[in-house]
Design goal:
The protein is α/β, with parallel strands linked by helices. The chain has six helices and eleven strands. The radius of gyration is 17 Å and the shape is globular. Belongs to the DDAH family. One of its GO terms (molecular function) is dimethylargininase activity. It comes from Mycobacterium terramassiliense.
């Protein structure tokens, strides 16, 4: 995780961002800290990456890369405003003993790359270039399933799909193209289908340890669905960070 020390909405690169809507830095910091404390309370280790001045979106750590099977893939961002984050996260990966791997084409880390069991679900359409998917599969030695995103409000895969355990996902189908919806139905026939009210507060932007699902507290309908499916929802208010187009998962780069 990276604290929102320099978080602000200084530009608009997704539909959630409004430069005329001020950000309360104090509230953003308090909400981020509540998320960090939630992870610690649930027994997880949290590494903190130092924020860099001039990179207001660095708080969205998930976009910094993808780490699994001793491979650290560093992001290549689509927008120049975020390009500097790659070096910062690569430095952190190196400090952990990894040798960061880059792709030729745009990949925005765990924003568009979500691991389910031994497979990577990979989004494309707005940020990550589909051509990066084959590079990622080769680097990780894992199959990659390409999924087209079609609604700009759900510009990253992690805004429209949440991984709950090695076999279970939750999805918001309207965010996907027809072929992607067909693929997901075939792969996950028992997926939890989330409604618009919860999707529009980025309710699917979750982190799950297989039992506890940390999610935006405003996604109350999804929380009820999770309880009914045997999971334990843990709501966290990240409303201030939602102003930049991110929530729980966006703020969390998981290491597998």
């Amino acid at each position: 995780m990276t604290p929102p020390t320099y978080f602000a909405v200084e530009y608009a690169i997704n539909p959630w961002m409004d430069v005329d809507r001020p950000v309360d830095a104090r509230v953003a910091q308090a909400q981020w800290e509540a998320l960090r404390q939630t992870y610690l309370r649930l027994g997880h280790r949290v590494d903190v990456v130092e924020p860099v001045p001039g990179l207001p979106d660095m708080v969205y750590a998930a976009n910094g890369g993808f780490i699994a099977r001793d491979i650290a893939l560093v992001a290549r961002f689509r927008f120049a405003e975020r390009a500097g984050e790659s070096a910062a996260y690569a430095e952190w990966m190196s400090s952990l003993g990894y040798r960061p791997v880059s792709t030729r084409h745009v990949n925005e880390g765990q924003g568009d790359l979500l691991m389910v069991g031994d497979t990577v679900l990979a989004g494309y359409g707005f940020r990550t270039d589909r051509r990066a998917h084959s590079e990622i599969s080769a680097a990780l030695g894992m199959p990659v399933v390409s999924l087209e995103l079609v609604d700009p409000r759900f510009y990253h895969l992690d805004t429209a799909l949440g991984v709950l355990d090695d076999h279970t996902i939750a999805i918001y189908p309207p965010a996907f193209g027809a072929s992607a919806r067909d693929q997901l139905r075939a792969l996950f026939p028992d997926a939890i289908v989330v409604g618009s009210a919860d999707a529009y507060v980025l309710g699917l932007n979750v982190v799950s340890d297989g039992l506890h699902v940390v999610l935006p507290s405003a996604a109350t309908g999804f929380a009820a669905q999770l309880r009914a499916a045997g999971f334990e929802p843990v709501g966290v208010d990240l409303s201030e960070l939602l102003k930049g187009g991110g929530s729980v998962k966006c703020c969390t780069l998981e290491v597998f």
